[in-house]
Amino acid sequence: MRIRLDPWPVDTFEGQLTLKPFAGLVFDVETDVWQAVPTQGIPVALREVVVVDGKPRMEARLLIDDEAGELHLAAFGAYVVGAVSLCPHGSRQAELQQVRARRVLAYSADTPLEPARLSPRNPQSGVLDYEPHAFNGRQVEGPRAKVQRLMLDAEQALSQELASAMALEEGDTDTLPETLVLQDGPVRLGRGGSAVVGYVKTLHTDYLGADRIGLLSELKCGERTPILRFRVGDRGGHFSEAEGREQRFTWYVRLCEPPFYQHPLAGIMRLEMHAPEDSTFVPHAVQAVANLSGALLQKLGSKLHKDPRAPQNLIPTAALEHAMTRSMGSAELVTRRIRSHIAAAYGAGVLA
User: Fold this and answer.
1) Which residues of 269-292 are buried (b: 16+ CB within 10 A; e: fewer)?
2) Residue ranges of the NurA domain (predicted)?
3) I need a labelling partner for 237 at 20 to 30 A (CA). Which of 17, 297, 323, 339 fits?
4) Kind and range of the H or E run holding 240
């Protein structure tokens, strides 16, 4: 028996490694030879790397009785998305971009609510404007899911805005974009054709199978696996119509060697990009991004003595997380403002 440590902090929702088998089909598209691919360094043509992330927050739950005596759910929430722009060659300092909180009044579509403006007693504290957004049904998690969905949509829009266009046809000769966006988590449904790479920090799904996963523990720093292709939502041939049209390229990269006491996949990250429908080839641009990904992520990977989610929680991501938390303000003070608002509104009969 061998016991190894999962390096992910225990206060996170899940560990870094669970590896539930992917139920669908995964195809070879780059090569039939399953072996490590060395990094080729960062080309001069790549002028900018932008790291995009988002952060949601629930601030207060609401219960609303309608005129018929039925109970409905709502919530005050907030989310923020932002970016860090950096030069992959280290020629300038990193810069924060578009870090701004947006506040949401999420409500069941059965009970429409008006926008809520929370005015402080001290004018210097600022006004909190909550924009109403409806969700379907009466599920307990409905408000939280709505805030999360709005954040993901905003992340996608920001990534698409900042990334260079990317040629994905088989005959295209353009091989590398000038601006590459690294987006925390998988790439979102829709919106292919841009240089957006999703980086997945946890290994919760096994896309390789028992006969191939062993290569991950053999990868040296900066090396990657060959590129594979899969279809989002594939459950062995059963998937929703929306998911069934979406395909992804994916590969794995080693950022660093794990300490002896951690499991052998501790320094591994999975990357993914949009794939053309039913493609049997890898576009030159995607392969170029994969080839530089190892060298780039080695430079951006965090260190264990500074970040408990190292190395997968990238250095720019950690800085961005701090900026996003500040932009939403003190959760305690916001909660006090909401309580005062509800007390005043209830007394006026606005929210009942």
Assistant:
1) bbbbbbbbeebebbbbbbbbbbbb
2) 47-326
3) 17
4) none
Amino acid at 114: E
Work out the angle at residue 97's Cα, subtended by the Cα atoms of residues 123 and 189, and round it to the nearest 5 degrees: 110
Chain CA centroid to CA 223, Å:
23
Question: Which position has the token pair 């006004």?
Answer: 127
CA distances from 146 to 100, 138, 140, 155, 215 (A): 18, 12, 11, 14, 39
Amino acid identity for residue 72 in this structure:
H
**What's the token pair of residue 128?**
């909190």
Q: Please say whether the dihedral angle defined by the alpha carbons of residues 209, 214, 215 and 220, taken in this order, is positive or negative.
A: positive
Residue 32 to residues 113, 114, 119, 225, 232: CA-CA distances in angstroms? 56, 58, 62, 11, 22
Residue 190 CA, chain-centre distance (Å), reads: 15
User: Which run of H or of E encompasses 71?
Assistant: strand 71-86
Strand order in the sheet with 196-200: 26-28, 228-231, 247-254, 268-275, 196-200, 179-184, 48-65, 71-86, 95-108, 128-135, 116-118
End-to-end CA distance of the chain: 60
Parallel, antiparallel or unpaired: strands 95-108 and 128-135: parallel
Q: Could you read off the pLDDT tens digit of each residue along the chain, which spans 352 residues?
A: 566 666 656 555 566 667 889 999 999 999 999 999 999 999 999 999 999 999 999 999 998 887 777 888 899 999 999 999 999 999 999 999 999 999 999 999 878 889 999 887 666 567 899 999 999 988 889 999 999 999 999 999 999 999 999 888 777 776 788 999 999 999 988 778 899 999 998 888 999 999 999 999 999 999 999 999 999 988 776 655 555 678 999 999 999 888 777 778 888 999 999 998 878 899 999 999 999 999 999 999 888 767 777 688 898 988 899 999 999 999 999 999 999 888 887 665 444 3
Q: Is the pTM of this model over 0.85?
A: yes
Every domain of the chain and the residues it spans: 17-57+79-99+152-328
* Residue listed under structure tokens 């049209």: 245
